[in-house]
Amino acid sequence: VEAVAKGIFIGQGITDLDSTDNKAIFDPSKIQNGNHTINFVVLDGGNTSCQKGDNTSLSLQIIPNYQSNSIEEISVCADGMEQVNLIDYLSIRVHSDGTWNTINGITPTPRSGTISPDLLQQLEAGTYLFTYTDPRYTDHANCPTVAVKLHLIKPPTATKIDSIEAVCEGDRAYVCVDGLVDGYYTAKYSIGLEEMPISEPFIAINGKALFMTTELSATQQQQPIRIITITNTQNDCQQTIKNNRLVGKVSIQNNSLQ
Questions:
Q1: How far, in Å, CA of 228 to CA of 79, rounded?
Q2: Which pLDDT score is estimated for 120?
Q3: Per-residue pLDDT tens for 42-96?
Q4: Computed over its alpha carbons, how large is the radius of gyration of the chain?
Q5: What DSSP designation does 121 have?
Q6: Cα 196 from chain centre
Q7: Contact yes or no for 198/225 (Cβ under 8 A)
Q8: The pLDDT value given to residue 84
Q9: Separation CA 211–CA 150 (nearest Å)
């Protein structure tokens, strides 16, 4: 019977307490991620062709073990102004050029997971799960992945803005807003060149809403009233009114606004 050669394993993360059984314990948690080499050195060739001092090596790669179900959640307003970088929200640092899955024709850029403002606007309001795939894990099905759950919020969609009814000097003008999803909003507006305080919260019902300006004075005569932004108070998602929509002019005649 041919005797088996005996030796010892040498390398980081290796514990070899018995050099006679050709067995050792390897603990990847004790070393850094990356490429490593484990050596086996023959101590007793026995009756084999191996001789004392012969050695062989085994190369292996240690990759980070992502926590299972590692899903972060973010809320983003698709207001056409801001982009999102999904990688900023991962719960673990990633080191390789991984990729993100495609949803409804939208593919975030590799690694950074950037979704541009115009692409965000192409998605419907809702929840999307973008998963990051690390190419180092393609041969390791048991290694979990990481993902970002994106809650996409659409900004208000005012389609029509008008001032209504003349009021007396010292009173407030009413502004009608149409096309909103039912909920609570505030408006940022200006009279002439002066930006006014944010309006008090107002409610949209069946898509229609009214809000009031500040009290108007004679010094604001013939000054245009323009809406700058409308904000949903429940999620701070904001609609910027293009060209600061003109809704009317202050006109005072006989102590009234016509």
A1: 14
A2: 94
A3: 888 776 777 888 888 888 877 766 555 578 899 999 988 889 999 998 877 766 6
A4: 33
A5: H
A6: 33
A7: no
A8: 94
A9: 32
